[in-house]
TrEMBL record:
<feature type="domain" description="HD">
    <location>
        <begin position="508"/>
        <end position="630"/>
    </location>
</feature>
<dbReference type="Pfam" id="PF08335">
    <property type="entry name" value="GlnD_UR_UTase"/>
</dbReference>
<keyword id="KW-0808">Transferase</keyword>
<dbReference type="Pfam" id="PF01842">
    <property type="entry name" value="ACT"/>
</dbReference>
<dbReference type="GO" id="GO:0008773">
    <property type="term" value="F:[protein-PII] uridylyltransferase activity"/>
</dbReference>
<protein>
    <recommendedName>
        <fullName>Bifunctional uridylyltransferase/uridylyl-removing enzyme</fullName>
        <ecNumber>2.7.7.59</ecNumber>
        <ecNumber>3.1.4.-</ecNumber>
    </recommendedName>
</protein>
<feature type="region of interest" description="Disordered">
    <location>
        <begin position="1"/>
        <end position="22"/>
    </location>
</feature>
<dbReference type="Pfam" id="PF01966">
    <property type="entry name" value="HD"/>
</dbReference>
<dbReference type="InterPro" id="IPR002912">
    <property type="entry name" value="ACT_dom"/>
</dbReference>
<dbReference type="Pfam" id="PF24931">
    <property type="entry name" value="ACT_ACR9_3rd"/>
</dbReference>
<keyword id="KW-0460">Magnesium</keyword>
<feature type="domain" description="ACT">
    <location>
        <begin position="859"/>
        <end position="943"/>
    </location>
</feature>
<keyword id="KW-0677">Repeat</keyword>
<keyword id="KW-0378">Hydrolase</keyword>
<keyword id="KW-0548">Nucleotidyltransferase</keyword>
<dbReference type="InterPro" id="IPR006674">
    <property type="entry name" value="HD_domain"/>
</dbReference>
<dbReference type="InterPro" id="IPR043519">
    <property type="entry name" value="NT_sf"/>
</dbReference>
Amino acid sequence: MKSGLRSGHTVTPKAAASMTRSDSTLLDRSSLAAELHALAPGRDKSALRSAVLAHLKQVLREGRASAEAQLIADGLGSACARTLSALQDEVIGAIYTVAIRHIYPAENPTAAERMALVAVGGYGRGMLAPGSDIDLLFVLPYKQTPWGESVVEFVLYMLWDLGLKVGHATRNLDECIRLSRSDMTIRTSILEARYLWGDEGLFNDLTRRFDTEVVKGTGPEFIAAKLAERDERHRRQGASRYLVEPNVKEGKGGLRDLHTLFWIAKYFYHVGTGDALVEAGLFSRSELALFRKAEDFLWSVRCHLHFLTGRPEERLFFDVQREMAVRLGYTSHPGLKDVERFMKHYFLVAKDVGDLTMIFCAGLEEENAKPAPLLNRFFNFGSRRRHRKITGSSDFIVEHDRINMADPDVFRRDPVNLIRIFHLADKNNLAFHPDAMKQVTRSLKLIDGKLRDDPEANRLFLELLASRNQPETVIRRMNEAGVLGRFVPDFGKVVAMMQFNMYHHYTVDEHLIRSVGVLAEIDAGGRSEEHPLADLVMPTIQDRTALYVAMFLHDVAKGRPEDHSIAGARAARKLGPRLGLTPAQTETVAWLIEHHLLMSMTAQSRDLGDRKTIQDFAAVVQSLERLKMLLVLTIADITAVGPGVWNGWKGQLLRTLYYETEPLLTGGHSQVSRDQRVGAAKAELIDALKDWPQADLDAYRDRHYPAYWLRVDLPRKIAHASLIRNADRSGQTLATAVSTHAFEAITEITVLAPDHPRLLSMIAGACTAAGGNIVDAQIFTTTDGLAIDTIFIAREFDTDEEEMTRALKVGSLIEQALSGTVALPEAIAKKAKPRAKIKAFTVETRILLDNSWSNQFTAIEASGLDRPGLLYDLTRSLSDLNLNIASAHVVTFGERAVDVFYVTDLTGRKVMNANREASIRRRLRQAFEGAPPVDKTPARKAG
């Protein structure tokens, strides 16, 4: 026998009818209740209870193990859920039987001493996940009796002692009906009521009265409540079905959405099977098959997830996705990991659930059950429908402010209408009628090579993409209907594709659509406060259309084995002429896609105070128009990654890079000599410090090296001068100053201290111990041996008062660390525990040394798996290697850290020796592994 359960048990007829496996383990069993009955002779009630409990624990343990093994073998999630429910039915029935026969037998039961055990809610559907709650309703004919109270208590305590989570209620018939009328949650749970054990007549009375006294005449009320409940649930879960850590049960496109459809169907159409949905005209046979396929997949994922985690976990967190992919049998393909293929399948199923919801709601409207959109609820669906024509089109009409087909054959007659309907909806600001969208999804086969090459179809699509209305909304509907991926096959390849990392919050297609939305908002002036430079630049861009196409396609080659920027540019060169772009426009789009990461990476990980950085960037960009377009595209791209990814500090870096590059592209002051620029910077500061005595000004002017004068802005020069002057007057050589920058979302901490080779490392360690996340650092040495290091940490609090309090604590800890009153290794160890999610990822460690990025420094780019304390270990290793750090730039992309250091050797020269480079790579790799070398004593860093 395949079962891991004991033989000799039977199953209730209702449970057996719900099962689909011909080889189900439970069908091989005789009565569990009879087996427990055999334990009774010779035992008192207490001993019998203990024996029954031990036996049932073994039954549950073996039954669940068998169900999990079968799930892994056949992958049938719905069957697994039904098997677990049937197993639970038998256990509850056996407990109830022991209670009424051996523990609390009623010799001459009265009419009141009757009871029906009823499964409600999810358990009532006859499907359970391994960690699901057991929802029970104890139905009484009248008020509770001592006998009934004792039986209920025995059953519940036995279930609790078995380790089960039980949701329960004990009510008489009148209470069930009264509460169902007033509470929609209770009404829904009883809607799915299923008889288990006890007095079946009571259960029949409940269902009869529920149908006649609660359900009858309240269909629209129930539907409106369930759809509102669904919308609120979606809002709580994040609104999008394309979140990369989805909730399998509650998320958009999850099991609860399918349950909602079935609740409505059962309540309004009085159907209990999928076939009845077809008979009611709500689904076609193929759509019913899709419903069942989606349901089985989601149940499979949910059951695997519970088995894997050992708890009722409903969210597919990163740390379980890879193992889930393995359990479900996915393998890696070129360009896509096994986990990415699994999650793509998940999101495609979630999309199918959305399609089914749309089709179902269209049927409800035909039955006048679902209210019309908010603006139109004053209309009476029973009266003649209000139609009007759309200017310039005879194929579409407006029906209650929603675009609909003039007749059912509009798409078959002219497939261009599959694009035109979206263009007209955008142009006329119309929502979509469910009937039209249902017909669109059923006409996708009409989108072929001929339609893709049709000039009119491409013109309409291009106008829609660059619309000045709200292209994001319409393009998302176009994607959800399946039109977008078929019309633009390159886009179709990234539909539902996720990237297995902590940086991206959405699937690739959702990110691309959101980025178009952000661009449209910038274009309309709706993000001027958040992106002031983009707001100024956007109106001056000469070719909006090329920018929108580049935005739409910039990540379209994700998931391919080669670099997605290069592959995406190649795809754009093929697609541009088809869309109707000129050769010049096509080349602009291809260039923007190929370099869409350039500005972001340069701004965040290069030294913007180094002239070579600006010159190299300008040499790639070459024109002011490209610079403008690249700036806006970069801002929209970062903003659309997900909530909290964009911040003011990134905006400030991009603005700095833009303003530094602009003069080089317009023939500005780029030819001014270095000495002239140093002199001008000194004069500017002297002019700002007019209240200083002349002798102090002359002395201060000589305290900084040229690099300081060129790379620090005037406000910081003034603040540094005040800090140094106050320290001089008080005879201190160690001081800190803090300032908050709300718009940039960073806090600045300046440290004045005697120069020391480990200074930056100690500052980084103190920040780690204090919970501060360093995003950038400027490092300078004065001519008299002091270091003035400025670090920028990510802002944590909304108010300046709270943030200033926090910053002062960080500054104080830095001072304690530098003065030796705090032991950094111990303080860091308390904070440097890897985040749980980080453990799910493997990131290749890469150490790059490049002498072409700067005329003065060697640039070291160290990238790999991020962790608390990493910057401390990297900077300590660089000090051990006798390298002087001139600047540090810290970037994180989810779990991946990219830290760039500009360094010289002890003589102030670049690192040019191959053996030395190999040693640096080896030691920094060790730092990523959390094993920095033993301290050495390098010389101090140079100015």
